[in-house]
Amino acid sequence: MMDVVIGLEVHVQLKTKSKIFCSCPADYTKDIPPNTHICEVCTGQPGSLPVFNKKVLEYGVLLSLATESRISKLIRFERKNYFYPDLPKSYQISQYRAPLSYGGFIELKSGKRIRLQRIHMEEDAGKLVHVAGETFIDFNRAGVPLLEIVTEPDISSPDEAVEFLTLLRETVRYLGISDGDMEEGSLRCDANISLKPEGEDRLGTKVEIKNINSFKFVKRALEFEIKRQTEVLKSGGRVIQETRLFNEAKGTTESMRTKEEAHDYRYFPDPDLVPIEISQELIDRVSEDLVELPLQKYWRFRKEYGLNDERASILKSDYYMAEFFERTVKFVGNPEKVANWMTVEITGILRNVGKELKETPLTPENFSSLLKLLFEGKISRPAAKSVLKRALEIGEDPIQLIENEGLLQSRGDLSPLIEEILRSHADQVKDYCNGRKKIISFFIGQAMKITRGKADPVELKKIFEEKLKDACKGLD
Q1: Hey, where are the domains in the chain?
Q2: Residues paired with residue 3 on neighbouring β-strands, in sequence order
Q3: What architecture is domain 411-475?
Q4: Considering 175, 289, 421, 437, which has the largest number of Cβ atoms within 10 A of its Cβ?
Q5: What pLDDT is recorded for position 375?
Q6: What's the pLDDT tens digit per position in 282-333?
């Protein structure tokens, strides 16, 4: 048997207005024309000088506090030298010997802690764009601020790697420092993986898998690499230290180059940037922006509201949704029912329309009003689902919709209808009284057809049972 040993290097782009060492906008999305958010500094023109963006430091300190990392008192920037077409200066301003922080952790649901070796700040490179056999360079992304989070080799499976990345992404989103979108490149992951005989302390030869851009691909790449390395070792071969790329179409990893070591990058202190002393005053000020973190919220939701793993996991995955849930529960109670509507109905509709809850006009107040009407039997479940769908898709107010379309119902409204149905189906009433209790579904179906689905089936069942009980007494 072999032990799997995985360490991750994660790059998180920060949501600052400007880049890390110049005043250019940090926005480089597809709507921005190529090479328009650039200047002399981020394209490395001779004589240009970097000026550090203090907001990057504040965001880095915030993540360090959230992961209980030890923040360095004195940090400095260094030049990491290598040539690549999208790196305009032929070096990257990064941190090596004096990182921002070190020694933190992210805890998994199992209680296992994945230790963080370091968190450091650096600038992003540009982007190569391949079109019709030609390659172009867009420098809009060059100089966008990054935090690199490097773990210890504490991860033991692809599933643990995905859980770690999920919690890290949720954390940076909760803190408001990044949108953590892997598909858009604002969170990128390199994975180091090796195998060793079970129980041995000495690590095997590691292989790095570069720039994996989705959680699904992280899992598939690691699963393939475990299989590949296992076959190499079983056949008596030797795993070589190298960098590999994940081929998404084939589901395989492919050799890219032999792995560089730190000395290959010829790190040295950047002469244009002075060392920075991090004061306790800055740390105290930044700490005021800390919020309850995703896993803390998950366990509290389980304990305080009695939610199961699936519902608590979905709700804690988005800070706005978690807050929305709690505000709704304050208005209407019934945390389990509220959680069910949010994790099934709302998330299903949002998935279909490609929106997030915070992008819709739905509020905890009008959602609570809708649920109150449903829980009190004044609106049917199908009608509530229809109203919610329209509210999320096209932004109509759900309560206004209910009033405009006359969807409110009461027992008083339903009783005459039910009595008429029973009069019109005397034979079926006799069958019910003779023991065919399942025929009540027939009566409910008739009522739903007449009300065009506006009645609540649960409320209908209650009233039919009461009326049928009286009818059966009359037949005795």
Answers
A1: 2-287, 294-404, 411-475
A2: 196
A3: Orthogonal Bundle (1.10)
A4: 421
A5: 86
A6: 999 999 999 999 999 999 999 999 999 999 999 999 999 999 999 999 999 9
Identify the band that residue 144 occupies on the pLDDT scale cut at 50, 70 and 90.
very high
The residue with tokens 């598909």 is 183
CA proximity to 344, closest of 383, 315, 370? 315
Query: Which tokens in the block code for residue 111?
Result: 């209680």
d(CA 154, CA 42): 36
471 to each of 135, 216, 316, 419, 438, how far by Cα in Å?
Answer: 81, 59, 50, 10, 16
